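>> received
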Amino acid sequence: MIFFKTLRYRNFLSTGDSFTEIDLNRNSSTLVVGQNGAGKSTMLDALSFGLFGKAHRNVNKPQLVNSINQKNCLVEVEFSVNGSDYKIARGIKPVCFEIWKDGNLINQDSHNKEYQQVLERNILKLNHKSFHQIVVLGSSSFVPFMQLPSHVRRDVIEDLLDINVFSKMNNILKERNSILKEQVRANAADLETIEMKVKTQKRYVEKLHNLNKEAKSEKLNEIKSLEQMIEDVRSTIDLIDESQLDLLRDQSNKTIKSISEVEKYDYQFGVKQKELNKEILFYENNTTCPTCDQSIDEGLKQEKTQTAAKKWDDFEEGRHLASAKVTGLKQTLSSLEDSIADISRRVNDADRKNTQIAEYQRRITEIQQQLTKFDESTGDIESAEKELEVLSENRYEVVDQKSDLADRASYHVVITEMLKDTGIKTKIIKQYLPVINNLTNKYLQVLDFYVSFHLDDTFKETIKSRHRDAFSYDSFSEGEKQRIDLALLFTWRQVAKMKNSVATNLLILDETFDSSLDAEGVDNLTKILDTLDNDTNVFIISHKGEMLDGKFESKIEFVKRKNFSQVA
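>> returned
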């Protein structure tokens, strides 16, 4: 419960530089009087501004500063809640907003709006709208409950019954639902992505296995083919003893040497024959010695000629033998050269084929090395398979997340249904509607207004006369409407006290007695005020003080002096 104690304000509207101080907890009933413009309702505006940062009446904040002094506008409100003492200080020019608890300033790190929420939600548990339904009833810019649209009526009732927490929870849940929907969308996208990655990785692993298998098979087949080619080439290689080629070459060289030697002898025999021919011609053509001029004996000539001719014949025979020998040797040499050429060709062919075999064997070795690398490349396959395992595990996590999100979504659906206006709040409201209606009708009877008033769970009123004629709020006179407004005001206060939600010791009636209430209505209202708890402090603001004098415990009179409002 909020126990309001003191209200102080200066340079607020018509109030001057000196503080106006009002004890809010001194008397059970206080009449506030004064001429129009004297500052009676200013106290209500000051209280509203101090608590909520805005006036009770429709006044812009800059206009709240005294127009003469134009600065140092300050409002202070002191109250207690749950055994703790609080003071609110709020000002304009300079701007000030402080919340003090038990003499200590509450942390102001937060923005003013958040600071105000701390005040309303955590301390007062009262907002500006509820303030005007529970604490204040009056004319000016105030809109009574029955003139509010249905959704605002609901807000008032929810504040009163302290169930607006469900609305706040619903708003939080809406935010969480929005986040959840985004998470579901993100999860769906993640799942689609991870499934695509898993599928792609599976194909990649399968491809690696197939490629490895096909490559191995291809390489093994190539080795088999090369080995067969080697075998085929080897079968065509003649087995040749290269020493035989050396022997033939040696024989060829010897034959060439023999030919050379025999041709040398043939040449020498030819030279000898030429010399013999000269000797024979000499003796045939000369009878004397050209050197000594002696006569050459015929017998000698004949003997010399015959001897030379016989030698010539011997040489001729030697040349024939040499020629025949050379011919034979050349034939032998030709045969040897043919054999050498044949064997050399065969040796070269064998070398070529051996080179081919060596190339095939090199290729086999190369392929075997590739096969070894293939075996080593299984590491790549293992790496790909491990990556597939990781992706599969990630997919399971995303699927689990999807399941968890689905569970949360289902839970949110249930909670959303509970937190809807048609859910748990309506059930609570339905429980209190009979109480509200009974209290309202009780206060209406006290006010001598004998009708049956009923609010349904949509907060639409049904008002019936004694003759069961149905009426709406708007169909009544202003005086009758005010009786309904008063009955609801006291009903809200009674329900608030039951709920201990926004119960307070303060009740302010702003010109309520000056409006459409007749004398009997005033008396009836006074009766209601007399029934209030002893801890209730009622302030009746009125400019008809003469009619109300003596009906209340104390009186405050506002006057205007030198253009400033003050307490007389």
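>> The radius of gyration is 67 Å.
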